[in-house]
Design a protein that fits this description.
alpha/beta, Aspartate Aminotransferase, domain 1, Aspartate Aminotransferase, domain 2, 7-stranded mixed β-sheet, globular
């Protein structure tokens, strides 16, 4: 029982909420949540734990797709937002917004290379939209090179950069000028650069593509090509940024300095929605003739900026990059040990820090594994562009004891899946 909700109240809240979702929000999603074991109403959360309205606890390995790096309701982020709430929740938009410029300074100090100036918005997709606009404005060119199986958002410009047709085809024609090449192939990028190419946009690790880790020299070679060809490099750190991979930003693993970088998700400390794109002084000078050429009514609002500033402080104060690296290694090794025991079900485990993908041998197996995990108190989700991959992106504050429990539940779910799989196909992996 949570917050004074008795079992009968919890039952009614669940039934009423599911019905409202069916009738007024998203009927198909309501059915999907029911099937996958997530048909309960979420009610409260703290740290790495989410509780539903009936009081059942889940260790949050979905992590809001990378939002909850600091965990749920981190007290320092909550305190910063409450303090700002009593001063000025939204900006009047005609004076200097102190929380916003304070945050811009913090980002400039931690961002890789010469990245210095920030524009604030409300989501990762908006950040990608802004980055594309800036690239076109700064270069006076229109072509953008992206990669197959990439994910940059679902607004029109961001969707045009995204590399999976299932999300794009229903909305075509999209924004023109986008070309997609295989991820990990720097030569393919060089081949399609022409006189109208403004920028290359890449994720340092493909998140929705299935937690795809590039070869060590890939990003540095793309950086060299962009420099030689006078093309801007946009790095999308929306899912990877702020400690997720064991570094403040994933490009730091590869020593690469982008011209423009997009961030969001964990920037809000798990409390407020906020996104940003950050550029070098040279690129940002394109905004000088018209400083209001790109604006956002709610972007950079004081509440979100206060949360983001506190979140950055917490990452340093609690050494969360180092913790992500250490406990990520522990989780990775545990999942890989399970893989070795159940090769009929798991083909590969890959990742950096606490951004880990567990790839199943057959797409349909997720329908066995994930509901079993949810039933036993673990949240995890597919990667959108590769449904064979279950991602693990828990809060960076997750404990070793919680990881041990995660591994127990995952192994039990995999063992159950193998039993059902073997009863259907036997143990011949060629049937996968």
């Amino acid at each position: 029982m949570v917050s004074g909700i008795d079992p009968e109240q919890a039952r009614k809240i669940n039934e009423e909420s599911l019905e409202k979702m069916r009738e007024y929000h998203n009927p198909s999603l309501a059915r999907l949540l029911k099937i996958t074991g997530y048909g309960a109403v979420e009610w409260e959360a703290e740290g790495a734990i989410v509780r539903d309205v009936a009081g059942k606890e889940y260790i949050d390995c979905a992590g809001g797709y990378g939002v909850f790096s600091l965990g749920h309701r981190h007290p320092k982020v909550i305190a910063a937002v409450k303090e700002q709430l009593d001063l000025m929740p939204l900006s009047a938009k005609v004076f200097i917004n102190k929380p916003m410029v304070d945050l811009a300074e913090k980002l400039a100090r931690i961002a890789p290379g010469d990245l210095r100036f920030s524009f604030f918005c409300n989501s990762g997709a908006e950040a990608v939209e802004g980055a594309i606009k800036l690239a076109r404005l700064a270069t006076k060119k229109t072509g953008i090179i992206s990669t197959i199986n990439s994910f940059h958002g679902k607004t029109f410009g961001a969707l045009s950069a995204t590399g999976r047709d299932i999300y794009k085809a229903p909305f075509e024609p999209l924004v023109g000028g986008f070309v997609h090449v295989p991820y990990g192939d720097a030569g393919a990028i060089e081949e399609v650069i022409d006189g109208d190419t403004a920028a290359v946009i890449l994720e340092p690790i493909q998140g929705e593509g299935g937690i795809v880790i590039p070869e060590p020299g890939y990003l540095s070679e793309v950086r060299r090509i962009c420099t030689d060809k006078d093309v801007l490099l946009i790095i999308d750190e929306i899912q990877t940024g702020f400690g997720r991979t064991g570094k403040m930003f994933a490009v730091e693993h590869y020593g690469v300095e982008p011209d423009i970088m997009t961030v969001a998700k964990a920037l809000g400390g798990g409390v407020m929605p906020i996104g940003a794109f950050i550029g070098t002084p040279q690129v940002w000078s394109a905004f000088a003739p018209n400083p209001l050429i790109i604006t956002s009514t709610f972007g950079g609002n004081p509440l979100a900026c206060a949360a983001a500033g506190a979140a950055i402080d917490v990452i340093f104060e609690e050494n969360l990059c180092e913790k992500a690296s250490e406990i990520g290694r522990y989780l990775f090794e545990g999942l890989d040990a399970i893989r070795k025991k159940y090769p009929l079900i798991i083909s590969e485990v890959r990742g950096k820090g606490l951004m880990i993908g567990l790839e199943l041998t057959k797409e349909g197996l997720g329908g066995l594994v994930m509901p079993e995990m949810a039933k036993n108190g673990i949240t995890a989700v597919y990667t959108l562009n590769n449904p064979k991959v279950i991602r693990f992106e828990p809060p960076l504050v997750i404990t070793g004891t919680q990881i041990d429990r995660v591994l127990e539940i995952v192994e039990a779910a995999i063992e159950m899946a193998e039993s059902k799989y073997s009863s259907l196909f036997g143990k011949d992996k060629s049937m996968v």
